[in-house]
Design goal:
The complex is a heterodimer of chains A (264) and B (58). With 264 residues, chain A is α/β, with parallel strands linked by helices. Chain A has helices at residues 3-14, 60-70, 82-93, 111-117, 139-145, 149-160, 168-172, 200-208, 218-222, 229-244, and strands spanning 20-27, 30-36, 45-46, 76-80, 102-107, 127-129. The chains are: A alpha/beta (264), B mainly alpha (58). Chains A and B meet through helix 6, helix 8 and helix 10 of A and helix 1 and helix 3 of B.
C-alpha cells in the first residue's frame, strides 16, 4: 500500500521540490509523526491505523503550521486523508498555511474506516493511493435526533458531566489555531470547577467549530472521558451545510457564511 | 440565530427560548408587542430545564 507513496515522496525529495515530508514512522511497534528529509528513511514509513478506526493518528496539519512558522521559505509535503485535505483547504483560507508551500500526498480510506467515521468524503482530491470510497451517512446524529427534546438534554448533560476539562479536544484540534481561546477566559468560563459549566462549555466550543470543523474526529479520540464530541460537531457542520449551503473544507475560495460582510 | 436555534434543539433545549428582533427605539408599540409576545411564549414553555436541575441539586 505504501509503495506508491514512497515512490512519490522519493521523487519529490530527489527533485529538490520539497525540503521534507511530514508523515508517520514506525519504530519498535510505535507509530509517531516524522519529518522525512532523507529518502533512505522512508523504509520506516507507516500509514498508522490506515485500515480501521484506531488511535494512532496525529494532527499532522497542526505540526505543518508549526513547521512552516519555523521554515517559512521551505516547501514541505504532508501525508493526508480526505479529512486532512478538508482541513488544509480551510487552513489555506484562514491564511494559516501557504497553499504554494504545501505538497499533498493523499491516501484514500477503506470503506470500513469511512463507515466508522461516517465520513462525508473518505478520500482527498489529490489521492495517490488507496480507494475512493463512497460517502457514509451519519447514524449517530440521526440517533440523537430520534430522541425527544428532554431526552436529548438528559443525554448531553450526562455526557458533558464526565468532562475533566483537560482541553484535550481543543489541543489536538488541527483547526484550533487561535492565539487566545475564549474557553480560557476567566470572565466567560469559571476556573476550579469540574465538570465545566454544563452544557455551555461544550456548546461554546461547538459554536467555535462553525466553518472550521472538518470532521477528522481527533477530538473524540483524544477525549479521556469518551464524550461523543464528533457527533456534536458533525451536527454543527450539518447545520452550516443545510441552512447556509456551506460545505466546510470543500473549497479554498468559498468563504464561510459567518465570515462574509456584505456591503450593499 | 438560525444556527444557534438548531444547535440548542440538537442539545435538547427548545429553540423558541432564544429570539432576536430588530426594533427601532422610535417604535415603542412594536417593542412592547415583541417583549409581551416573548414573555407569553416563555411562560408557555415553562421554566428552563437547566435552571430547574441546578435548583434541585442545591
Amino acid at each position: 500500500m505504501s509503495a506508491k507513496i514512497k515512490e512519490a515522496v522519493r521523487a519529490l525529495l530527489a527533485g529538490g521540490k520539497i525540503k521534507g515530508f511530514l508523515g508517520l514512522r514506525e519504530e519498535n511497534g510505535n507509530v509517531m509523526p516524522h519529518l522525512f528529509c532523507d529518502p533512505k528513511e522512508l523504509e520506516a514509513l507507516s500509514l498508522g491505523d490506515w485500515k480501521k478506526a484506531g488511535d494512532t493518528r496525529y494532527p499532522l496539519n497542526q505540526l505543518m503550521i508549526r513547521l512552516t512558522l519555523q521554515y517559512p521559505e521551505e516547501t514541505f509535503a504532508v501525508l493526508i486523508r480526505g479529512c486532512d485535505e478538508r482541513g488544509l483547504k480551510e487552513l489555506f483560507k484562514w491564511k494559516q498555511l501557504a497553499e504554494d508551500k504545501v505538497v499533498l500526498i493523499g491516501i484514500g480510506c477503506p470503506d470500513e474506516l469511512a463507515k466508522a467515521c461516517e465520513c462525508e468524503k473518505p478520500f482527498p482530491d489529490s489521492v495517490i493511493d488507496g480507494p475512493q470510497g463512497a460517502k457514509a451517512d451519519s447514524e449517530k446524529v440521526a440517533r440523537i435526533e430520534a430522541m425527544a427534546l428532554d431526552a436529548r438534554l438528559q443525554y448531553w448533560k450526562a455526557e458533558f458531566d464526565r468532562c475533566v476539562k483537560c482541553f484535550g479536544c481543543r489541543n489536538i484540534c488541527p483547526m484550533c489555531f487561535c492565539n487566545e481561546c475564549s474557553l480560557e477566559e476567566n470572565q466567560l468560563v469559571g476556573t476550579g470547577e469540574v465538570p465545566p459549566a454544563n452544557p455551555t462549555f461544550h456548546l461554546a466550543r461547538a459554536i467555535h467549530m462553525v466553518g472550521r470543523c472538518i470532521d477528522c474526529g481527533l477530538c473524540e479520540e483524544a477525549c479521556p472521558a469518551d464524550i461523543p464530541l464528533r457527533t456534536l460537531y458533525k451536527k454543527v457542520t450539518e447545520i452550516i451545510n443545510k441552512e447556509f449551503g456551506y460545505k466546510t473544507g470543500f473549497s479554498v475560495d468559498e468563504k464561510s457564511p459567518f465570515n462574509i460582510i456584505e456591503v450593499k | 440565530m438560525t444556527f444557534l436555534k438548531k444547535l440548542l434543539e440538537f442539545s435538547g433545549l427548545h429553540p423558541e427560548r432564544v429570539r432576536t428582533r430588530w426594533v427601532s427605539s422610535a417604535e415603542a408599540v412594536e417593542f412592547v408587542h415583541e417583549i409581551s409576545g416573548f414573555v407569553e411564549e416563555i411562560k408557555k414553555l415553562g421554566p428552563n430545564p437547566l435552571r430547574a436541575k441546578a435548583k434541585e441539586a442545591a
